Amino acid sequence: MAWLGAAVAAIAAAYGAYRLTLHRAELLTGWLLFALVLVLALYNLRKRIAIYPLGAASAWLQLHVYLGLLAVAAFVAHTGAVWPHGILERLLVVSFVLVAATGVLGLYWSRRLPNRLTRRGEEVIFERIPGFIARLRREAEEAVEMAAREAGSATLADHYREHLARYFAAPRNILAHLHGAGGPNYALLNQLDALKRHLDEKERVQHEKLRALVEKKEELDFHYALQLALKAWLFVHVPLGGMLLMLIAVHLVSALAFSGGL
Amino acid sequence: MEPLQTFDFRSSRYERPNQEWICGWAREGRACPLGPDTRGHCRATSECRPVDRAGRWECTRSEVAGGRCADGPLPDGCCAHSIIRCRPLRSVKGRRRAVARWVAVVTFGLLVFVLGRGFWAPLIDPGPLSPAHAGIADCRTCHAAAQGDPMGWLPAAFGSALAHRSGSRSCLECHAFGKTPLAPHGLPATQLASMREAATARTSGSAPLALKAARMITPETPAQLECATCHREHGSSIAASVSAGRCQVCHAAAFESLAQGHPAFARYPAKRRTRINFDHAAHIGKHFPEKVDLKPPGKCTDCHDPEPGGRLMAVKTFEATCAACHAVDVEGTKRTDARGLAFLQLPGLDLEALGKRGVAIGDWPEYAEARISPLTDLLLSSEDTYRSARSRLLKADLTDLPDSQHDADAQVLAWSIKMVVEDLQTGGALAWQRRLESALGAPLTPEQRRALTGQLPAAAVDEIQREWFPRLAEDLRKHRGGGAAPLNVVRAVRAPAKAPEAKPQKEASGEFDKLFGAGGLLGSEEKEKASGEGPAVPAAQAQKRPASSAEERMASGGWYRDEDALRYRPGGHRDDFMRAWLDAAAGSPAFDALSDPKKTAGACAKCHSIDAAGAGQALVNWSPARGDPTQHSPTVFSHVKHFSMLGEKGCSTCHTLDRKADYTAAFAGRDPSRFASNFANIRRETCVECHTPAMAGDACTLCHRYHVGEFLPTLPAAALERMSRPASKH
């Protein structure tokens, strides 16, 4: 981190010195910002053309992170943290802030969520989770049918239909899992446990099986929520990044054309 | 519970998250192994594609999908387990790419639409103009790029020619800053270089580190600086806000702050000697205490008022400040010689010798014994013959011509004077104008003509002709006809206008005195020496001089005849005649005598200093320093703003009298830059007492202005004919 601190100090000093010159600092920060955004966008390109030896993706990611933070500093210096008047500039500010914020959020999540994922449940591939949920749903429905068939009672089946059918239909409680809250699932298990005293021995066997399936579903929901978060921020970051490039191009041309001879 | 998935190659199918589409059955956990094509079409047919091995169809379903099926292929070689076709879904990455594509397409489309339809103004609206420019409604007024469509922005943005951008040129259409407005400070490079050299010599310390770094980035000052270097439009103010560092990046003499390293004030505030020769030290220390009865000034503000704008402390009027003591100097009340300026002076001639030698000069007054006056010489100098004769008479004494060496020249002199009188009598002001224009070598303006003639009455000219040259017309006719007009000595018939106690002056100075000798305009001293009997008037008449002489009667100013001279007595301070003659005669031989307060009535040059104006010309400073809206000095200061900061010391807080300075010596010459001020330089430390970053501020632009030099604001060029047009909204 020492070299990073030194680099930040050197950049700040150079910028401070540049502000003393007769050049317009906005032009410097503007060009710098444009260059940084271009290089940051190249990271996405680098991932697409993995066949060429353009350096390790991890190194690119590291560069992407540092340059992204530098771009935030350049953005603040360029705009002076002033809300602009033009629609184009306002769109630029909004899109940059969103891109930067999602980038920071993505960085945070990519550092924190994998650890949480490895600490709980089995490792599952995100794309397979819907299939696994369907499998759990089928097993749950089989257990409920078995209980009804063997005990001749619809107690467990009614409970499943009223409280668990929707739960097993798709990933649930995504935000709660993202925040680490287990409340909703805890309530489901409580309800299921409260039902136990109304069941006979045969039903209780299926009840236990159903309870295990609910806990497994919760683990899948947990993995789904966290893995979804690791992918979802890119839905804002990447598309708005492309939009940002186009807006910057128009802004750059108009700013230079109207720059007053500098 | 058993794990949901295993990761061996037999039980775990390879996932391809980078693919755009995934099988629609993946949600149910039974995605087909083939998957959709790149366009999202389902390609599923059956669970396997049987192969023919030795005439027998065999199932090829993979281990991952369950291995060989029990049913086996159909007899025709088709799989017995057909797959129900799905509706493929976009993968996560596919959905993200789709979103990105849509955002890009929509953004591009909107930009093309908005820019193409000309709705770009709100798109790049930089905000309202500053109040100073709020009246400008059209972007094209300042921005050339706004004159075309957005496609024209490209050459404007990346073209190398400044003309494409036009920012500063647009500014200069309304704002004038001299001949080189975009040069640093609007000053020529040579002047900047000399200023830099002077400032460097007075600067101690070295540039701050940040400044050194900045100079590495821009080692040389650009030859031109655009307005936008310092001024920012589309904000609350167009006024430049420039840090000290940005100023110093060009300035060779760099320093930390006003308190640390700023050059000591040199010649501040005095850059030249005062225009009015007023010795503060002598007046405050000596004259005022001696004149208590005349109520001399007791405070600085008794003589000084802040001028409009508050920059200078202007000197109050002569009447309010100097008149109590010095009005007598102007009016000449205490003069021992003539109080009037000899406009036309008859020189004394050795009439006896000339008469004996038969030199024909016609009438000539016996009592004319003075030297010729400077103004008379000026009037005559338009004639070649006179100028030639004058050069030969430089060392001659016209009242003592023992031989005939100078007879011809004396004759030329006499006839030239007579012709002047004739001219004035017959041609009046027009003749006067012709002679002056010829002598001064420049046409006169109507105002100059009016002031230089002093409204000389025709009767006065007639009188001097009758008194001096009774037979002028006849004499001139003979002279011009080639005949001889013998000398006729005209005797005095009237009492002299001048008081008998008048004393002559003794010192000679200037070309005039070399030519005609010292003794003042009336030359009384020589007259007395020559006659040996005092004033050149009959004693009986002198004793009968009227109680009030012509000179005394003209105490309010005006023309009078004083024996052998036609004189003008100034009517007090700001006399137009005196001022006009001093201005007009600058550069002529008469100026030295006219500007000598001891010899000339009015004594204008006693207080009004005279500056050399180049090419032998001179400039009389008729007014003390005044704010000049066309002059923009590098330093700005407002006395008014500092009044509230002064304590008991008042003006002396900053202005300290320097009693040792030889103030008056500087006025012996005409170079205003060679001077000794009555006051010590303002000390930088005095300013630093308040001007710190925390108190009154110490920014460069607080005391210095960037746009310096002489320039007028751009004047509107509205044609008068527009005045007659009916008023309209625009």
How would you describe this protein?
The complex is a heterodimer of chains A (262) and B (730). With 262 residues, chain A is mostly helical. Chain A is built from ten helices and no strands. With 730 residues, chain B is mainly alpha-helical. In chain B, a hairpin with a 5-residue loop joins strand 12 and strand 13. Chain B is elongated and about 170 Å long.
Number of strands of chain B: 15
Q: C-alpha Rg of chain B, in Å? A: 49 Å
Multimer state: heterodimer
The number of helices of chain B is: 26
Largest beta-sheet characterization of chain A: none
Give the ordered list of helices and strands of chain A.
Answer: HHHHHHHHHH
Sum up the structure in keywords.
heterodimer, A: 262 residues, mainly alpha, 81% helix, B: 730 residues, 3-stranded antiparallel beta sheet, two-stranded antiparallel ribbon, 26 helices, elongated
Brief summary:
By secondary structure, chain A is mostly helical.
What secondary-structure arrangement, pairings included, does this model have?
The complex is a heterodimer of chains A (262) and B (730).
Chain A: H1 2-20, H2 25-48, H3 57-79, H4 87-119, H5 129-151, H6 155-169, H7 174-178, H8 183-195, H9 201-232, H10 234-257
Helix pairs in contact in A: 2-3, 2-10, 3-4, 4-9, 4-10, 5-6, 5-9, 8-9
Chain B: E1 21-22, E2 51-53, E3 56-58, E4 89-90, H1 92-116, H2 120-123, H3 153-158, H4 167-172, H5 189-201, H6 209-217, H7 244-248, H8 280-290, E5 304-306, E6 313-315, H9 318-321, H10 323-331, E7 341-345, H11 351-356, E8 363-365, H12 374-380, H13 384-392, H14 407-440, H15 446-453, H16 458-468, H17 472-480, E9 488-490, H18 510-516, H19 524-531, H20 539-543, H21 550-553, E10 558-562, E11 565-569, H22 576-584, H23 590-594, E12 610-612, E13 618-620, E14 631-632, H24 639-643, H25 684-688, H26 700-703, E15 709-710
Parallel strand pairs in B: 8-9
Antiparallel strand pairs in B: 1-4, 2-3, 5-6, 7-11, 10-11, 12-13, 14-15
Helix pairs in contact in B: 12-14, 13-14, 14-16, 14-17, 15-22
